[in-house]
Amino acid sequence: MLEIYKLFCAVNYPLWWLILRLRSRRGKEHRQRYSEKLGYGYENRPEGDVIWVHALGLGETLSLTFFLEKLSHRFKNKTILFTSSTLNSFIAFNKLKMKKNIIHQFAPVDNYISLRRFLSHWKPCMALISEIDLWPLRVVETKKYGIPMVLFNSRMNEKKKNDRKRIYKVFKETLKCFDYIFLQDKDSKKHFEYFGIPENSLRLCGSLKSAGTQLYQNKDLEKRLKSAFQGKLVWIAASLHEDEEIEILEAFKIAKKEISNLILIIVPRNTDLYNITKSKCERYSNKVVIRQIDCQVPHKDTEILVVTTIGELGVWYKIAKIAFIGNSLNYERIKTGKNPFEAIQSNCLVIHGPKMLEPGYADLLNLGITDIVDDRYQIANALTKYSLPKSRSCKLMKGKKFIINNKILIDKFVDSIQLIYKKKGSKNFLPPF
Questions:
Q1: Mode of pairing for the β-strands spanning 370-372 and 349-352
Q2: Using one digit for the tens of pLDDT, what is the confidence trace for 271-282?
Q3: Distance (Å, rounded) from C-alpha 31 to C-alpha 23?
Q4: Distance between CA 137 and CA 116 in Å, rounded?
C-alpha cells in the first residue's frame, strides 16, 4: 500500500498545483506563499545548522511556541526552521514576537519534487515532527536523506489506534522512520508498541501545551477594550463548536438576570460560519458586534462580541475573568475539548464541558483548578458563583502554580533534543542525488 502511495506522490504535482491555486483564490491559502508547499519561493538559507520543527495546524502551532522559544535560546547560533500547513497557523504565528533565529515556512506537500526541493534547500540537520498526523512520503523521504528524526508531543488513544488499523502497514513503516518518539502519556505507549515500535524508542515528555503558550499581545487593543468594558464582567466562550452556541447563549440569558453587567465574547472554532453565529446571537441581544478585521472593537453598550480574527486569544483572555473552553459539551459531533491552559495562564477562571479528555486535563480537575459544567443551567450557575473576585482567587492561584510547574516539561524535553543533536545532529548532510 505504501508503494502505491509513493507512485501517486510521483505524479500528483499537477493536482497539488491546481488544488493550491484554487484554494488561494478562495482565501484558504496564502496568496503569495502557497508556492512554498510546492517547493518554491523559500527564504534564503542562513549559514550553519538548521533544525526543522513541524506542526500541522493552528492549535499545534500555538502549543509549541514556548518550546520554540526555549529551543531557539538553547541553539541561539543555529536556525530554527518552523513549518506548518494551514493559513490560520501562519496568521497566528506571524502575530507573535518570536526570536530572530526562528523562520516560518509552509511545509511541502506529499510530492517527490516538492519534498526534494525543500530538503535540498534547507538541508536540516534534525527534524522534529509534532503530534501524530503524519504524511508518509514526507517522513520516509526525510529519513532517506539521513536526517535524524524525532516525533514528539504525540498521543494515541484507543480510537486513534483503531482509526490507523486500516492503514496498519503504512503507519507502521512511517513510524519506523523516527529515531526517537516522545509521547504525552503512558497510555499511548502500548498503542505505539502495537504498531511495532520498540519500547526503547519511546520516551515520555508530557503535554507541552500544559506549560502554556506564547500569547499575542496588543497594548492598544487592550486599552480600548478596557475602556469599552469598564465596570463589566467579561466572560469568554472560546474555541466554541457550533453545536454549543445555543447552550452558551441560553446560559448568558439566564445569568444576565443575576449579573446585569455581564458581557459575552464568543470565539467560534469555525470562523467561516460567523454569519450563522451572528444570527443566533441577535436572538438574545440587539447589541451584538462582530470583529472581522483589526479596526473593529466593541462599543460601551455591547453585550455580545463575536470574534472571527485569528490569533488574538491572548488579548481576549486577558480582558475576560471567566472562560468557557469549547468543543467540550456532550454533543455527538464533539470528540474532545480544546486547550484550557492558555486561559489559565492568562488568569481566567476556567469552566468546561465533560468531554475534556486529553492528557493533563484530568489534573486540572483533580487539583480543583477548573469546573465541569454539563448544560446551560450549570454554566449560568458557575458564572454567578464566580462573578466576584474573591470566589475566583483560590482557583486562579492554583492555576498559576500549575502552569509554572509544568514549564519544567519543556526544559527537560529541550535537554533531550540537545543530547540527540550532540549525538547525531552534527553529521554532514549528504543528499541522495
A1: parallel
A2: 888 889 999 999
A3: 9
A4: 11
Q: By C-alpha distance, which of 381, 382, 386, 379 is closest to 246?
A: 379
CB proximity list for 302: less than 8 A, separation 6 or greater? 228, 263, 287, 288, 289
* 313 burial via Cβ count (<10 Å: 0-12, 13-18, 19+): buried
Q: Note whether 323 and 351 are within 8 A (CB).
A: yes
> What's the rounded Cα separation, in Å, for the pair 349 and 200?
40
Contacting residues for 414 by C-beta, under 8 A, at least 6 apart: 67, 70, 71, 74
Provide the pLDDT for residue 5: 93
CB of 112 closer than 8 Å to CB of 137: yes
Flag whether pLDDT at 86 surpasses 50: yes
Answer yes or no: pTM beyond 0.90.
Answer: yes
- What digits encode the pLDDT tens for the residues 126-137? 999 998 888 999
**H or E stretch covering 94:** helix 87-94
Q: Can you list the domains of the chain with their CATH numbers? A: 2-206 (3.40.50.11720), 219-399 (3.40.50.2000)
